[in-house]
């Protein structure tokens, strides 16, 4: 554990070298109601204990915590990063500009959940005062360690307010989420779509069915060890086909099965009695999160069935209110996942580069607004229907 220091409001700052240096009960007590499972202590600990997010892979943990009277008042997963992989908010151009001017962009400070582009709380705190003090402590740490910058990714509104108050710059992007509008079944959902979108989805599902592919699902403790093993073969194959090793180790998923089983839903695609593909969905508080997928055989439209249609059908049948489709992917709109703005916050130590990035973000932000307006004109729902349809 790093040396202690004090910040405003008489908090004691402790910088932790691993999630295990704070108890799960202390950490999780800071989570707001309805928080995604990805900021839980068990999830972050599994990232590190499994060897997935470690200094060796470029993720050096420096979890920042604020204490008063021996009680934890605020905390965040802070990493010192030697690269920008696994973040999904791209700053490669900023790093290149630094390099062209003979400056070092890395190491940088990052507040995020490794390899997990899911919006949610990043500054865990008992109240707004503690949250704002946590931002001050982050900036003080970055200055002390002479880091080039600080980045908070996929933040919630409370985080944004604290960051804005501290003078950080905001950056916006777009994801695509599906919202349950009270449909009784998948056919009722399809009936709400424009005719061309409805026809396309039916065609894609028919191709998979005619290829002899069927699906089964299991959740939580009902997911068999053999299914976890098969899923990892599929997940690993997806990365290897693109020439990269997988971000997450098999041990990470073993820890998920042991420590957070209730948060996982798995779909297995089978043909002629053999599993050929799998998708893994996170679930919590009536929200589903599309996370990982892979296939050992190629079947036309299998990806859409495994990653969208099966999960959406499951969400409708089980009363889940939202399905978040993950990073990027304008094609998701054709499956009724609608655009949602996401926000990150940034601080750069170099004044000239900070000014240049601020101007860039103003232009980029206007582009995002134009993009959202453009997407709004391309609703997949029937003409005249509101969204969500009533």
Automatic annotation (TrEMBL):
Q: Which InterPro entries match?
A: Acyl_CoA_acyltransferase (IPR016181), FemAB-like (IPR007434)
- The superkingdom listed in its UniProt entry is Bacteria
Q: Which Gene3D superfamilies match?
A: 3.40.630.30
**Could you identify this protein by its name?**
N-acetyltransferase
Species of origin: Ramlibacter albus
């Amino acid at each position: 554990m790093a040396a202690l220091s004090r910040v405003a409001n008489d908090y004691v700052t402790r910088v932790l070298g691993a999630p295990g240096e704070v108890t799960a009960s202390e950490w999780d007590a800071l989570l707001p109601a309805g928080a995604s499972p990805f900021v839980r202590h068990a999830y972050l600990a599994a990232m590190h204990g499994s060897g997935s997010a470690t200094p060796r892979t470029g993720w050096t943990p420096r979890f920042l915590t604020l204490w008063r009277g021996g009680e934890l008042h605020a905390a965040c997963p802070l990493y010192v990063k030697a690269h920008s992989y696994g973040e999904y908010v791209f700053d490669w151009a900023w790093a290149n500009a630094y390099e062209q001017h003979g400056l070092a962009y890395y190491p940088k400070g990052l507040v995020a959940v490794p390899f997990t582009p899911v919006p949610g709380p990043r500054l865990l705190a008992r109240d707004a005062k503690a949250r704002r003090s946590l931002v001050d402590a982050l900036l003080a740490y970055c200055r002390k360690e002479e880091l080039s910058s600080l980045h908070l990714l996929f933040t919630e509104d409370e985080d944004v307010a604290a960051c804005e108050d501290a003078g950080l710059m905001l950056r916006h992007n777009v994801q695509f989420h599906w919202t349950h509008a009270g449909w009784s079944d998948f056919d009722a959902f399809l009936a709400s779509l424009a005719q061309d979108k409805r026809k396309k989805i039916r065609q894609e599902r028919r191709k998979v069915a005619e290829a002899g592919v069927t699906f089964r699902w299991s959740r939580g403790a009902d997911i068999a060890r053999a299914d976890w093993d098969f899923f990892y073969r599929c997940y690993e194959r997806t990365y290897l086909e693109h020439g990269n090793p997988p971000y997450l180790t098999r041990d990470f998923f073993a820890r998920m099965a042991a420590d957070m089983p209730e948060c996982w839903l798995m779909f297995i695609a089978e043909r002629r009695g053999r599993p050929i593909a799998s998708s893994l969905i996170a679930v919590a508080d009536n929200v589903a999160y599309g996370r990982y997928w892979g296939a050992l055989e190629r079947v036309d439209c299998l990806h859409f069935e495994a990653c969208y249609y099966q999960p959406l059908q499951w969400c409708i049948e089980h009363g889940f209110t939202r399905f978040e489709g993950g990073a990027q992917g304008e094609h998701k709109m054709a499956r009724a996942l609608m655009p949602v703005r996401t926000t990150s916050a940034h601080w750069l130590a170099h004044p000239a580069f900070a000014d240049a990035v601020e101007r860039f973000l103003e232009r980029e932000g206007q582009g995002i607004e134009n993009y959202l307006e453009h997407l709004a004109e391309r609703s997949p729902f029937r003409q005249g229907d509101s969204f969500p349809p009533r």
